[in-house]
Amino acid sequence: MNFKCLMPLYEKQVPSSYTYKFTVFTPVFNCENSIEKVHDSLLNQTYKNFEWLVINDGSTDRSHDVITEIIEISPLNINYVNNIENKHKMSCFIQSIELARGEFLLPLDGDDECDPNALEVFNNEYEKIPEELKSTVAAVTVHCRDQYGNHIGELFPQDPFYCNTFEARITKQISGEKWGFTKTDVLKGILVSPDILGKGYVPESIIWNTVARNDFLTKCVNRILRVYNVGVEGSIMNTPMSSRSAFGIVLNVMSEINWFFNKNFPRAPIYFFKKLYILLRTSTYLDYPLRVYLRSIDSYIIKLCVLVLWPFRKLMK
């Protein structure tokens, strides 16, 4: 076992031809009470050149029936996939990249809403990117508010703000939940090992970090366009740590350390020591021996820290 072999790679792809400007992708798991709100948000969009890709991830409630009823009456271009088996969100995201017929892929969860002009703003902001930057900019990102109308996170330091999202995050230029699209061609170039799929929760940040690692920029804009529901029962944010989420978290932490430690440790040491703590604490939920972690980590500093602290990891709360 070597976690390094499971970290995503990137290979530039030949540009594809697309039918739509946007693919709005909605993963669904037990969203019978909220999926109609997502549909209404898209139905009210002022910009119409998009498809709605819905992947039902083995829901155990009436989600399938509700989605089917929506499709029967909706004027939207809907591509619906009903996964009988629950594959988890990362598997659905990879599935959406393969199925997308839009130039830009925009995730919108099954309990989210967005402003009527959201797609129009996204399209306009992309068109305003200088031509010399368009090949380098892979994404456009905006802000969210919660269901009570409160802005989540802080404003970007400039508007627009072009950045490497990982570097901006560790220097606290980006905080809080954000929302945006990514070029489908870029996402198609990300090679994800099938061995990590089906192992429970895998953070989506491993995908965004792969984009950042390959020197793509994101255009960040100080607009609030998405309603992000916080404190929702069943949300991964409210799920206690367990073996179902541990593998993905460990893989994500190791990828951040291997990809970004050498360049970024001097300006953000606390960030990486927190990641070390998360790695050690989360490893208690897995059965891999110490040698697997030492073999998978590139940094000799982190290897030494893991070696020294390994006997005490079960004391970490």
Automatic annotation (TrEMBL):
Origin, by domain of life? Bacteria
Gene3D superfamilies, alphabetized: Spore Coat Polysaccharide Biosynthesis Protein SpsA, Chain A (3.90.550.10)
CDD domains attached to this UniProt entry: Glyco_tranf_GTA_type
Which InterPro entries does UniProt cross-reference here?
Answer: Glyco_trans_2-like, Glycosyltransf_2, Nucleotide-diphossugar_trans
List each copy of the Glycosyltransferase 2-like domain by range: 23-132
Against Pfam families, the record matches this protein to: Glycos_transf_2 (PF00535)
| PANTHER family, per the entry | GLYCOSYLTRANSFERASE, GLYCOSYLTRANSFERASE TAGX-RELATED
Q: What is this protein's record name?
A: Glycosyltransferase family 2 protein
From what organism does this protein derive? Gelidibacter pelagius
Taxonomy of the source species: Bacteria, Pseudomonadati, Bacteroidota, Flavobacteriia, Flavobacteriales
